[in-house]
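Entry for 2-phosphoglycolic acid complex. Fields follow.
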Amino acid sequence: MRVTLHQLQVFEAIARSGSFTRAAEELFLTQPTVSQQIKQLTKAVGLPLFEQIGKRLYLTDAGKEVLTVCRDISERLSQMEMTLADLKGLKQGNLRLAVTTTAKYFVPRLLGPFRQCYPGIKIFLKVTNRKRLLDRLAENLDDLYILGQPPENVEISLCPFLENPLVVIAPENHPLAKEKNISLQRLAKEPFIMREPGSGTRMAVESFFANKATLNVEMEIGSNEAIKQAIVGGLGVSILSRYVLALEGTRGPLTILDVEGFPIQLHWYILYPATKQLSIVARTFLDYLLDEGKRIAAQVDLDLRNDE
Ligand code: PGA
């Protein structure tokens, strides 16, 4: 059956307006052209599409069937138009992300598969601590933010993302490494390396220990990686996200101590200002994070737990 889109378009205009003349005017065609298109369509269908009773034009059963198909096709065409417009938007554009230092252990690896789908998108990733990230949020500097412990008194859209367990990390040869259910008081005797003020990790550690024990803080370091090195160097133990061990696991020079009440179970959230209109790029990345991204990041944590 050789039916063309043009014939269907002419047919739909006649069916809607009930007149060959009005359809011709609407489509800027001559009457003979309109009649010719319908003649060819009728021939292709093999049945009459209209019947004329008096001055009025009625659709035959075949005509009704063709009209249903016409509407389906035009619906699909407008969907295609929308999708193509979105794809053009995704061909280029910027994605600005700000994540806390704990989230940097999985966010960059999630960017890989996303960028493979949308290679034209330029990604800017800012890694900083909770306090500085909230400052950026207040200044509306980024599209999306990933952090633990969302702020209060700020109007935000909030999507819970993943669990972020905080664990006690020590050198593998630490005297407590083989002990089970170590008490908080015992842990508090160890030299402790604390994150800097403004860190969400520090905030969580301080509130966990508030009424339980006083940590023996001997050092303050503003970087998870530097803390890991300091632990290997024998300077003390620390409490960090389990994700900081994402690459080396616990088979390297670091181990996780079995301390009562641990892990401290925190959560990561993806958030953005409530009034912000997300770009098509940011919206697509958010959807990707909540679906595929969640799966990939959860696998990182699963591998770590299997490793322990
Ligand atoms: P931070 O991260 O310690 O780098 O601030 C913790 C968080 O995600 O809140």
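NOTE: Residues 61-91 form the longest helix (31 residues).
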